Structures are given as C-alpha cells and as structure tokens.
C-alpha cells in the first residue's frame, strides 16, 4: 500500500476536509442511488378485476400509487399489512393512495372489504416491487361472479313466475272458451230458450260441396249470434279446415267478420256429419234479417257460400 500523506492547511488536515466532503455528499449520493432504479421504471395506468385471486400491484418508493374502487369500501374492515412499511396519503371509501417507504423486498397485502358485503366476502391485493414498471393508478372493479349468480337466480325465479302466469292465462283462455257461445252450442247447452233459434225457412240453393243439409241454424242473442252448419264427416276428416268466415247482408252487401270459426272436434255424429260453428257479433238490424255465410278454407280450396242465415227483427230475447 502507498504511504498516507498528510498535509497541513491552516491548522486543518486534507484528510479532515475529505472526510467532511464525504459527509456532505453522502445523502445526495444515497438519493441518486435510490432514484436510479426508479428512473428506469415505466409508470402505468390500468384496470383490474377483483376475483378470488389476489391482484398484483407494482409499487416503488417515491411513487404514490392511486387505487380506485367502483364500490364503497368498508374502510374499518380494510387492512394493510404491514402498515408500517407505507405512507398512507388517502384512505377513503372509493380511493386509497399509498406509497412504500422503501423498496418492497417482500410482498405486502391489502385486504379490502366492501360495504354491505358478507363478513367472509373480501378481495386481496398483493403489493410488490417490479424492476421495470410501477402502477401509478389502478382502477379496481368488483368481480361480477356473485352478482351474476344472483342475477341468474332472479331470472330463474322470474321465468318460473312467467311460466306460472302463462299456465294460468292458458287456463283462463280455456275457461273463456268453455264459456263462449260457440262452446255452449257444441256442448248442447243452448236450446230454444234464452236465445232465438232460427232455421232457414226454405233452402235457397242446393247444398254446397261437403254440406249435408242446405239450411243453417242461427242462435241469435242481443249482441252475438252463432251459426251452425252440418258438413259431411268424411270431408272434415280429409283435412278440410275452415279458417275465416263472414256474414254478408243479402240486402246491403255489408260484410261482418266472424271471430270464431270452429269445426266440431271428436268423432262424427251418428248421422255421419260434423258441425261447423261460426260465431260473430250480431249485425245491426238495419242491415236486414237475411244473410249469407261465406267460409274460406285452408289450402286454397273453394270457399263455401251458405245462404239462408236468418235473424228475427227483435231487440229482446228470452223465453
């Protein structure tokens, strides 16, 4: 080793000056050494989803990391461990801002709990150091898993209610159908009392194709009427399907659409016929008493034109 040379400068040695200079520069050099890794780190702003797996947050001394939450935290049950390794700038329901006091040699943990959440429901963040980047801001979104499951359960519940309502509605429709004038006629519950039962006075034309009798029968009430016509059961079984019907005034030509056109279900009658039933609102008396029934058939088959539908000119019905 070379010899240590000591010179005297005004009562102070050069060694003393060098020692003092070192003491002055030491904090500056330490700061440069600590800041050097930070200069190489890239700050980033990102979004992360809170799940059962801890979210990793990259932190560094000298950088305050802003954590933004999309729901209110229960700050009293949110825990940072170890607390003494950080400076807390903000600790509120939606924002936590913290900064490590020194380089994190081991991960720290931030356990967050949200207001209104179950005691066991929590999310974790792992606070670590990274050589290349640092999180300046992280927006944290609650996992939608629990909410999605709750929503699915709610949807399933509502679907069950809808199905029950549809079942009740279908039952109501069936009941309404069972109480309709058409159903009464088919069930034989409407006779010659309570309504006017009117048959054609005389055949106005030969039977239409598929018809077994030329004269329709009308059940006429104050605001509705039902017209029945017997058709050949063989024709009914062959796929003959009535779709729409109208009452056409013989005097005025006015047309009134029927709202029910139904072929008697089940087996043919003993006389080999089936009953075609048409229900409509009763036409005004001013349109006359004689109508023609027009029935359109599915499949492009020729429509039926059945004359002789009669109504009595009276405003009161009953026995």
CATH architecture of the largest domain: Sandwich
- The average pLDDT score comes to 75
Largest sheet: 5 strands, mixed
State the helical fraction. Answer: 10-25%
Radius of gyration: 47 Å
What is the fold-level CATH name, i.e. the topology of the largest domain? Immunoglobulin-like
Oligomeric grouping of the chains: single chain
What do you see in this structure?
The protein has 319 residues and is α+β, with helices and mostly antiparallel strands. It has three domains: 42-143, Sandwich (Immunoglobulin-like); 151-179; 185-310, Immunoglobulin-like (Sandwich), CATH 2.60.40.10. The chain has four helices and 20 strands. The protein has helices at 14-39, 145-178, 181-186, 233-237, and strands at residues 8-9, 12-13, 42-50, 55-59, 65-69, 79-81, 86-91, 95-100, 108-112, 123-129, 133-142, 196-199, 217-220, 224-232, 242-249, 255-257, 260-263, 273-281, 290-297, 304-310. The strands form five sheets. The protein has a five-stranded mixed β-sheet with strand order 3-11-5-8-7, with no helix packed on it. The chain has a five-stranded antiparallel β-sheet with strand order 12-13-14-18-17. A hairpin with a 5-residue loop joins strand 15 (242-249) and strand 16. The N and C termini lie far apart (141 Å). The model is unreliable at 1-38, 201-212 and 313-319 (pLDDT under 50).
């Amino acid at each position: 080793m070379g010899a240590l040379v000591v010179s005297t400068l005004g009562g102070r040695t050069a060694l003393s000056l060098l020692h003092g200079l070192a003491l002055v520069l030491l904090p500056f050099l330490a700061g440069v050494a600590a800041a050097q890794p930070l200069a190489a780190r890239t700050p980033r702003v990102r979004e992360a989803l809170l799940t059962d797996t801890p979210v990793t947050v990259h932190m560094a001394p000298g950088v305050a990391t802003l954590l933004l939450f999309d729901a209110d935290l229960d700050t009293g049950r949110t825990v940072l461990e170890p607390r003494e390794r950080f400076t807390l700038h903000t600790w509120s329901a939606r924002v936590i801002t913290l900064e490590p006091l020194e380089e994190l040699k081991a991960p720290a943990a931030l356990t967050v709990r949200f207001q209104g959440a179950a005691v066991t429901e929590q999310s974790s963040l792992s606070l670590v150091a990274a050589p290349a980047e640092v999180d300046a801001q992280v927006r944290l979104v609650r996992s939608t898993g629990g909410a999605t499951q709750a929503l699915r359960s709610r949807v399933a519940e509502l679907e069950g209610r809808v199905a029950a309502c549809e079942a009740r509605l279908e039952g109501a429709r069936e009941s309404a159908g069972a109480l309709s004038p058409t159903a009464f006629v088919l069930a034989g519950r409407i006779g010659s009392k309570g309504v006017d039962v009117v048959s054609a006075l005389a055949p106005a034309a030969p039977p239409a194709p598929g018809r077994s009798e030329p004269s329709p029968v009308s059940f006429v009430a104050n605001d509705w009427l039902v017209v029945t016509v017997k058709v050949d059961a063989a024709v009914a079984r062959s796929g003959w399907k009535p779709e729409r019907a109208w009452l056409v005034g013989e005097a005025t030509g006015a047309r009134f659409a029927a709202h029910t056109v139904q072929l008697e279900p089940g087996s043919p009658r003993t006389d080999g016929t089936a009953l075609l039933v048409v229900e409509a609102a009763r036409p005004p008396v001013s349109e006359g008493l004689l109508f023609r029934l027009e029935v359109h058939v599915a499949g492009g088959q020729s429509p039926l034109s059945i004359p002789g539908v009669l109504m009595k000119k009276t405003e009161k019905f009953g026995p």
